[in-house]
């Protein structure tokens, strides 16, 4: 028996207890309708018309028409259509899992399962549509002819299509088959949809946190032919551990297997270990250029903080086999890597950091010839101790200014060079005694006496084994005189005890000099004296005119003269028994160092030299700027120029007493983003026209100028960029532009040549562009020239590194990165990059047109954080002709 009623306001109906028992409901159903309500008592059904709405627990259903069946606990919702059959209003279903629209819906509110037709919806991880959707009580969706995308546009840029698709909210999308479509809009028009990646079965993670799953495979074409890479699986065991296993497979038989295991426990330890084995085949076995490379590598990185006083650091890398490098390898920067380095260290502090011990290990393998050097070390250090102080506080007693600083270390080094094994051991123990005395205002001195004992053993398979000890007694004084002069002096005494010495004589029958090793322990001693004095002279010029023009309030010129004196007797002379003499074939006496092959052989020749250096600093004081808030920032001190010159004069030398003059200058006076460094060495002496050696004759008196050029360099770096505007499209990863915190990271002085060339080896560097930056230019020029051999023309190297970027519009960005050898007139790894940012996805094309590594690289990737691993890549080498 149907009952019809006009509904003017919200109507609330609650079933009887018998109804609740029958349907399993224990919560009130609330329903409303704008136009009418029809309730059939006999059939236990209810129809709601016109902006109908039903709410049950956390579920809500809105539709033009809703049919409620109390017997089956089912809601049916239907869309509204116009006279032509076109849908004008869709039902909307909402619960805690999200909301979706569909032409028709069927939902069982008792079991929380439902089915829809022609559905579209938004969930936290993206958007989906489907011809037929079945929804379970868990929130899982089974979709027929499903489409999933993270692009919020009404006409999305990309989507995944699956004939049968399952969506588990905040977990994954499973589809069979799966096809990735993109619909590019490179300029002002949109192209047809392009299928990129067709797979028979695939699932995609759609949650932001880590999740286990298969890696997104990639394929390409290079020297191996067609290959598939990134085949593998990722296990996210928990928030603290994960494992990645992957491999490559090429049609010509090449393959690779690799794994990486990472772990972390907050505040205690973290690290990873990874390794791989690769077999790389080129050409056919019958071809003359056939090669079959096999190589492996293993890396272990571990950082362990046992407590605030003890920590362990490991970074071990091992590699073997024959390497083959290609510009398309996973780590292209390995092209320039020639060493495999490892280190390990453990340190522990005691007594609130006043004492410490450290143990270390280092390993360096030359990948070109497999030469290997390993070392193990241990050291002990203690801060300065004042033995006569009570309770650690200073007192007026002179003894309280006396301090001790002990130290000790041991080291063992093992080397394999040209298949020969070498070993070297040394142990060192020292004690530094210091005393400080203030004599009055402007007069003070620090006295220091060190006692250091060292022992060394050298096992050499080529020469005889060697051993020896060294006692070192350096005494030094650091003083301040008249408040403005720093005067320092040191007296260094060394005593050596070695296991052998040599004797030489000329053998007339052999017509050569014979060297004989005498295995008889002996000792020798040497000493030296060093003094230096330094002061600073200042001159300040206040510039009110410049302050009004360019904000420079004052200029300061600082002169720092430094005078040194070093002295040592002639321990090679007749007065000491450290040198021997033999008569050569011309019946002339020849002096030689008797300890030249001993483990210690440093015997000073006579030296009595005065050195002088003068450094000039030109600085500017720039007034602060007014901020938008009306505040004035502090004045800045800018260093405009640093210029220094140095030389020395050896009074004890028989000839060539004056050392070459060395000049060094640095400046960024032209602009904060322009840095200039230059240096040169000139000699006042001429050279032998036959041998090229220096001779005791002034260059100006030998058909030359006052100074003779020996070597010099110029290093310039420049960074320029366009004005940064406001845009919320900007993304940053340390490239040019303004950082997220508002600081300007590019206002630093850039020497930049290393940073510029490293960009060429990072394929993802260009994904992080700043759309606010219309253009950026970075240049570095390095010029080095020398005439170490004056008989030859100058050997000159001129390298220019360039990085230029320009934003063509908000979508397209073009960049060029290259080096240029000006002397050889050739480009060094020129790279042109075109990057397109299409909001939901991006595209990158890199091209190296010439050179040994001429190649191309093309990539399309999705920008959603949980789908960033999904990328279509194509790369390859270019032919020699191209």
Gist of the model:
It is built from three helices and 55 strands. The chain has 882 residues and is mostly beta strands.
Topology of helices and strands:
Elements: E1 2-6, E2 11-12, H1 17-23, E3 29-32, E4 36-40, E5 45-56, E6 59-69, E7 74-78, E8 80-81, E9 87-89, E10 92-95, E11 98-108, E12 113-123, E13 126-135, E14 141-149, E15 158-168, E16 172-182, E17 194-199, E18 202-205, E19 213-214, E20 218-222, E21 225-238, E22 241-250, E23 255-265, E24 269-282, E25 291-307, E26 310-321, E27 339-350, E28 355-366, E29 372-382, E30 402-417, E31 420-440, E32 443-459, E33 466-481, E34 485-498, E35 501-507, E36 512-518, E37 522-534, E38 537-542, H2 544-550, E39 552-568, E40 579-583, E41 589-593, E42 607-622, E43 636-650, E44 661-667, E45 674-683, E46 685-687, E47 694-698, E48 708-721, H3 753-759, E49 775-786, E50 795-807, E51 812-821, E52 826-837, E53 841-848, E54 855-862, E55 871-877
Antiparallel strand pairs: 1-4, 2-3, 3-5, 4-5, 5-6, 6-7, 6-10, 7-11, 8-9, 10-11, 11-12, 12-13, 13-14, 14-15, 15-16, 16-17, 16-18, 19-21, 20-21, 21-22, 22-23, 23-24, 24-25, 25-26, 26-27, 27-28, 28-29, 29-30, 30-31, 31-32, 32-33, 33-34, 34-37, 35-36, 37-39, 38-39, 39-42, 40-41, 42-43, 43-44, ...
Descriptors for this entry?
882 residues; mainly beta; 31-stranded antiparallel sheet; 16-stranded antiparallel sheet; 3 helices; disordered N terminus
């Amino acid at each position: 028996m149907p009952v019809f009623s006009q509904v003017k306001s919200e109507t609330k109906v609650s079933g009887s207890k018998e109804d609740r028992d029958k349907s399993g409901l224990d919560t009130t159903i609330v329903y409303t309708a704008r136009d009418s309500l029809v309730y059939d008592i006999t059939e236990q059904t209810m129809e709601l018309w016109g902006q109908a709405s039903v709410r049950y627990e956390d579920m809500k259903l809105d539709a033009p028409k809703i049919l409620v069946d109390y017997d089956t606990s089912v809601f049916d919702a239907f869309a509204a259509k116009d006279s032509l059959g076109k849908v004008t209003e869709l039902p909307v279903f909402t619960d805690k899992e999200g909301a979706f629209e569909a032409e028709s819906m069927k939902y069982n509110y008792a079991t929380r399962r439902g089915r829809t037709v022609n559905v579209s919806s938004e969930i936290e991880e993206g958007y989906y549509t489907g011809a037929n959707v079945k929804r379970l009580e868990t929130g899982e969706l089974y979709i027929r002819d499903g489409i999933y995308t993270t692009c919020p546009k009404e006409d999305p840029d990309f989507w995944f299509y699956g004939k049968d698709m399952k969506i588990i909210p905040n977990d994954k999308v499973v589809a069979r088959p799966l096809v990735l479509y993109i619909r590019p809009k490179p300029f002002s028009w949109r192209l047809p949809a392009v299928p990129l990646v067709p797979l028979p079965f695939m699932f995609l993670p759609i949650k932001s946190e880590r999740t286990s799953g298969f890696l997104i495979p990639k394929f390409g074409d290079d020297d191996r032919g067609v290959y598939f890479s990134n085949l593998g699986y990722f296990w996210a065991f928990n928030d603290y551990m994960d494992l990645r296993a992957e491999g490559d497979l090429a049609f010509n038989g090449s393959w690779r297997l690799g794994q990486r295991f990472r772990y972390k426990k907050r505040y205690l330890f973290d690290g990873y270990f990874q390794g791989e084995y690769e077999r790389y085949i080129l050409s056919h076995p019958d071809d003359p250029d056939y090669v079959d490379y096999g190589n492996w590598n293993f890396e272990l990185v571990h950082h362990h903080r046992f407590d605030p006083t003890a920590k362990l650091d490991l970074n071990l890398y091992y590699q073997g086999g024959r390497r083959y490098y290609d510009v398309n390898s996973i780590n292209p920067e390995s092209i320039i890597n020639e060493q495999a380095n490892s280190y390990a260290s453990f340190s522990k502090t005691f007594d609130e950091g006043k004492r410490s011990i450290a143990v270390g290990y280092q390993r360096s393998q030359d990948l070109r010839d497999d030469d290997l050097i390993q070392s193990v070390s241990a050291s002990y250090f203690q801060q300065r101790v004042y033995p006569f102080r009570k309770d650690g506080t200073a007192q007026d007693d002179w003894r309280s200014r006396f301090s001790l600083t002990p130290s000790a270390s041991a080291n063992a080094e093992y080397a394999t060079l040209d298949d020969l094994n070498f070993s070297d051991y040394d142990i060192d123990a020292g004690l530094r005694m210091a005393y400080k005395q203030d004599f009055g205002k402007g007069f003070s001195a620090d006295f220091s006496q060190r006692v250091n004992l060292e022992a060394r053993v050298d096992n050499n398979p080529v020469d005889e084994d060697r051993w020896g000890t060294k006692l070192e007694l350096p005494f030094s004084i650091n003083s301040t005189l008249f408040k403005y002069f720093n005067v320092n002096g040191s007296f260094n005494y060394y005593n050596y005890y070695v296991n052998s010495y040599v004797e030489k004589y000329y053998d007339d029958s052999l017509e050569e000099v014979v060297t004989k090793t005498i295995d008889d322990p002996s000792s020798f001693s040497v000493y030296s004296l060093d003094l230096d004095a330094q002061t600073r002279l200042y001159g300040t010029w206040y510039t009110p005119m410049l302050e009004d023009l360019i904000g420079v309030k004052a200029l300061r010129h600082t002169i720092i003269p430094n005078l040194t004196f070093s002295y040592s007797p002639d321990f090679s002379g007749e007065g000491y028994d450290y040198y021997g003499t033999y008569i050569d074939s011309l019946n002339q006496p020849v002096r030689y160092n008797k300890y030249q092959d001993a483990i210690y052989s440093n015997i000073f020749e006579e030296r009595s030299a005065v050195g002088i250096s003068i450094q000039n600093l030109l600085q500017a004081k720039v007034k602060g700027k007014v901020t938008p808030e009306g505040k004035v920032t502090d004045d800045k001190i800018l260093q405009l120029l640093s210029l220094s010159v140095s030389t020395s004069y050896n009074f004890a030398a028989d000839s060539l007493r004056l050392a070459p003059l060395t000049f060094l200058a640095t400046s960024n006076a032209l602009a904060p983003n322009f840095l200039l460094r230059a240096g040169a060495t000139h000699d006042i002496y001429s050279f032998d026209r036959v041998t090229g050696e220096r001779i005791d004759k002034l260059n100006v008196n030998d058909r030359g100028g006052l100074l003779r050029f020996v070597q010099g360099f110029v290093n310039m770096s420049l960074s320029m960029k366009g004005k940064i505007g406001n845009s919320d499209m900007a993304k940053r990863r340390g490239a040019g532009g303004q950082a997220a915190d508002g600081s300007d990271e590019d206002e630093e002085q850039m020497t930049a040549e290393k940073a510029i060339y490293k960009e060429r080896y990072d394929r993802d560097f260009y994904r992080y562009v700043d759309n606010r930056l219309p253009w950026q230019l970075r240049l570095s020029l390095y010029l080095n020239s020398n005439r170490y051999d004056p008989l030859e023309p100058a050997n000159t190297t001129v390298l220019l590194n360039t990085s230029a970027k320009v934003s063509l519009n908000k979508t397209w960005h073009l960049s060029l990165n290259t080096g240029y050898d000006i002397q050889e007139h050739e480009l060094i790894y020129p790279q042109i990059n075109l990057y397109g940012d299409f909001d939901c996805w991006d595209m990158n094309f890199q091209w190296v047109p010439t050179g040994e590594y001429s190649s191309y690289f093309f990539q399309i990737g999705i920008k959603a954080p949980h789908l960033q691993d999904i990328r279509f890549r194509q790369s390859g080498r270019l032919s020699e002709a191209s």
